[in-house]
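REQUEST ID: PR-0412
SUBMITTED BY: lab tech R.K.
PRIORITY: routine
TASK: structure prediction, single protein chain
INPUT:
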Amino acid sequence: MSRTNLGNQIKARRAKLKLSQDKLARKADIPFSTLVKIEAGYTPNPSIETMMKIADALSVSLDELTGRKR
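STATUS: complete
OUTPUT:
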């Protein structure tokens, strides 16, 4: 998945839950700036730990968040 697509996936799921970036960052226990950079596509390879925290905060699996299909 490209950086932009990942950022768009996170934004879309966040919007669906009506969460601000600040609220999602707090819920995921990650720095606000990290979330902003991921959503904007400026962080090319977020850590798996960060992605798992975001997925958990959005109540989706990591596969769903990244669009991975089996």
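NOTES: The first helix runs from residue 3 to 16.
REVIEWED BY: pending
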